[in-house]
Design a protein that fits this description.
This protein is of the alpha/beta class and 304 residues long. It folds into 2 domains: 97 residues, Rossmann fold, CATH 3.40.50; 157 residues, Aspartate/ornithine carbamoyltransferase (Rossmann fold, 3-Layer(aba) Sandwich), CATH 3.40.50.1370. It contains 12 helices and 9 strands. The strands form 2 sheets. It has a 5-stranded parallel sheet with strand order 7-6-5-8-9. A 4-stranded parallel sheet has the order 2-1-3-4, sandwiched between helices. Helix 4 links the parallel strand 3 and strand 4. Helix 5 crosses helix 12. The longest helix has 20 residues.
């Protein structure tokens, strides 16, 4: 049976730890597992522009001995020019795997349902599993153990937030999410994360007070206030999220050894001040680098 990765919810606790261990090994040895994709071609189907996701997957596929084919927004318009199921069925005859970066998570699900080859979610409106796994790897590098740590997510309850709360819950981290009213994470995903966390005596909580969320946190995490496709809401969101900026005052509420995280791209002066993101607590470029290593581990996991 083929393996897919659509959401962190698909992974068991031991599988997450396996991926983290493999990513650490691959970071130390870039050529470890370098033949797993020999004679294989993996396509990137991207409906959204990308920096880290595209480059890290292309480089990772190359380092594992495979070939990468990029299909951008103007080439395959899933569900419009051609049905998603027909695209999946056709590409299954040519390719060995697909990494998809889509607006609608339903397109990822349909690709998975119809394709006979592995599908990896490179980002959708609902989840960003590769980012969250790279984040867990980056946190583990700084604190050695994940279970029992506290992560405070400040900002929009978006796809990054969804994958983070699920990932943290599955490894026993405590999470406090602070959003403005009306911008909370999906209630169903929040409930799944809360249920997972109870198995490890951890918690996933929701508040509308960033100072409350940040209290004692080992990790302060934020993302842009306006994601791709929401540009017309930008002016309104600047006002709504004004009190949710990560700055020195908010960091002072956290653990003495806390780190700052952001999945990038960042807008200095909006969701985070330059003083924080460019300061000594910031590990944003460790996160960015670790996208390469965790995605290589995912590819090994999927194709082994």
């Amino acid at each position: 049976m083929k393996k897919d990765l659509l959401s962190i919810h698909d992974l068991k606790n031991e599988e997450i730890h396996y991926l983290l261990k493999e990513a650490v090994r691959l970071k130390a040895d870039r050529h470890g597992g370098s033949s797993i994709l020999k004679d294989k071609t993996v396509a990137l189907i991207f409906q959204k522009p990308s920096n880290r996701t595209r480059v890290s997957f292309e480089v990772g596929i190359h380092q594992l001995g495979g070939k990468c084919l990029y299909l951008g927004p103007g080439e395959i318009n899933l569900g419009k020019r051609e049905s998603t199921s027909d695209v999946a069925a056709t590409l299954s005859r040519y390719l060995d795997g697909i990494v998809a970066r889509t607006f609608k998570h339903d397109d990822i699900v349909e690709l998975s349902r119809t394709a006979s080859i592995p599908i990896i979610n490179g980002l959708s409106d609902l989840y960003h599993p590769c980012q969250a796994l790279a984040d867990l790897m980056s946190i583990q590098e700084k604190f050695s153990e994940l279970q029992g740590l506290k992560l405070a997510y400040i900002g929009d309850g978006n796809n990054v937030c969804h994958s983070l709360i699920l990932g943290c819950a599955k490894v026993g981290m405590n999470v406090s999410v602070a959003t403005p009213p009306g911008y909370e994470p999906d209630s169903g995903i929040l409930a799944m994360a809360q249920n997972e966390s109870r198995q490890f005596n951890a918690s996933v909580t929701l508040t509308h007070c960033p100072q409350e969320a940040a209290q004692g946190a080992h990790v302060i995490y934020t993302d842009v206030w306006t994601s791709m496709g929401q540009e017309e809401e930008h002016a309104a969101r600047l006002k709504i999220f004004h009190d949710f900026q990560v700055n020195t005052a908010l960091i002072s509420k956290a653990h003495d050894h806390c780190v700052f995280m952001h999945c990038l791209p960042a807008h200095r002066g909006e969701e985070v001040t330059a003083e924080v993101i460019d300061g000594p607590r910031s590990i944003v470029f460790d996160q960015a680098e670790n996208r390469l290593h965790i995605q290589k581990a995912i590819l090994l996991f999927i194709f082994s």
